[in-house]
Amino acid sequence: MNDLHVMSLSGDALNRAISTYMGRCTLLLGQAFQRDTTIQQAFSVWLQEEFRETKSPDVMLHDPPLHTVARYLGIPDREIDQSVIRRAAKIARDHRW
C-alpha cells in the first residue's frame, strides 16, 4: 500500500486549493488560537504574500494549517499548547478535514 500522494495543481484548481487552505488556516487562527479579526486579517495578507512569493505554492499546501498558523505566530510546532491542538482537532473533525 502506498500512502504517498502526488498533488499537481495549476490554474483554477490551484487557486481553489489555496483559497480552501487559507480558509482553514484563518478558522484555526480565530477559533483554535483564539486570535481576533485584526490578527486574522494581518495573517491573511501574510499568507497571500507567502503563496505569491514561493515558486511552488502547491508544495506549501502540504503543510498542516495548524503549523502554518503557529509559524506565523512564532510558535515552534513542538510548543503548540495542548488546548490549541485539541480545539484544532475538534474543528477539523467538525468540518471533516
What does this structure look like?
- With 97 residues, the chain is an all-alpha fold.
- It has one domain (13-94).
- It contains five helices and no strands.
- The mean pLDDT is 92.
Structural class: mainly alpha
What general outline do the C-alpha atoms trace? Answer: globular
* Poorly predicted ranges: none
Q: How many E strands?
A: 0
For the largest beta-sheet, the strand count, sense and barrel status come to: none
Amount of helix? 55-70%
> In total, how many domains does the architecture comprise?
1
User: How many helical stretches?
Assistant: 5
Mean pLDDT: 92
Distance between the terminal alpha carbons, to the nearest Å? 22 Å
Concise summary:
The chain is an all-alpha fold and 97 residues long.
Quick tags:
mainly alpha; globular; 97 residues
List the helices and strands and how they pair.
Layout: H1 11-32, H2 37-53, H3 57-60, H4 65-73, H5 82-94
Helix pairs in contact: 1-2, 1-4, 1-5
